[in-house]
Amino acid sequence: MFRNTARCLDALFVIAGGLLAHRMRFSTPIALSDTEHLLIAFNCVLVLLMFPGFGVYEPWRGKALPSMLLRVAAAWLVVVATALVLAFTLHRMDALSRLWFGYSTLISGALIIVTKCLVHVSLRSVRRRGMNYRTVAIVGAPGFARTLLAHLDHALVDVVGLPTLNLSATPVSSPQMWPKLIFDRLFAAAALLALAPVFVVLAIGIKLSSPGPVFFRQTRKGVDGQPFAIYKFRSMTVHHEAPGQVTQAARNDARVTKLGGFMRRTSLDELPQFLNVLLGQMSVVGPRPHALEHDDLYKDQVYGYMNRYRIKPGITGWAQVNGYRGATTKVEKMETRVKFDLFYIDNWSFWFDMKIVLITIFKGFVGRNAF
Description:
By secondary structure, the chain is mostly helical. Helix content is 55%, strand content 8%. The protein is built from 13 helices and six strands. The strands form three sheets. The protein has a two-stranded antiparallel sheet. Helix 1 runs antiparallel to helix 4, helix 3 packs antiparallel against helix 4 and helix 3 packs parallel to helix 6 (174-194).
């Protein structure tokens, strides 16, 4: 309830900022231009889609206020930059008032940031008076319990909708992840715009090759095990399997269409996942998400398998550029893939991501194990 209210308020602040900026820019009552309407609409939609991916609506309880405000500011700047890219693509930049755009960006950003700051300070003041607390019972050795209490506020995370105490080491702190978050959104937006003609051609080819939808949609698990809908171009004929059963594609699989086989070998079927990245559900680089049935199968057989969900899943990853992609018919194959995934998580850096992206671009699109 609170998160939905916060999202609606942020969208209203975007609209209010645009209207106030227009009033400041034009002292006479002139109606908003089509370009101003378009940018306000873009910003509203992007705020609703992208802010959750930056963790703007996560609980701020126990978090450092400056760190959270910087996160909101970074999210807002990415939204504005993405809206500018969209306006440029639609050839609307010439009709855009630079002064109005600057006023709108500052006013909307200030309204969003100041409101969240006031809410956080008010809630902290209420808690200091003994209200708005959650009672937690810790059973165990007194020494360990005291140590646990000292870190409780900073280790509380949301896992599959449940407040959970995270005792595992995280690879990096939130400020270090900002370059990755910003890169993900900008790269995904640029990729979706640049690849739009490819999307159209593939969509037509898929519809002509076999009856059925253009996109394949399936539930996968993201960071902290949160479910999300992953998107791919459909590469198989429409078929149905028994509940709880997923049959992996094999070489010369009759279900795979001719175009589908080409898309799978060249990873073109994965391109719609840039939408998942833009929505904040995935990253450009990270462990590949597996089918839920495979999660259930391997979580008890492969050591460290569930640790892959400490970060967002990715379109490409360290395991994939090292040749570990495609079907996993043996537990040993999955074990090796997980080792590469965990190595990536434990040794993550922004430049490690850039290395994987470059390897993917130059040699990672075509795979011998994909069919």
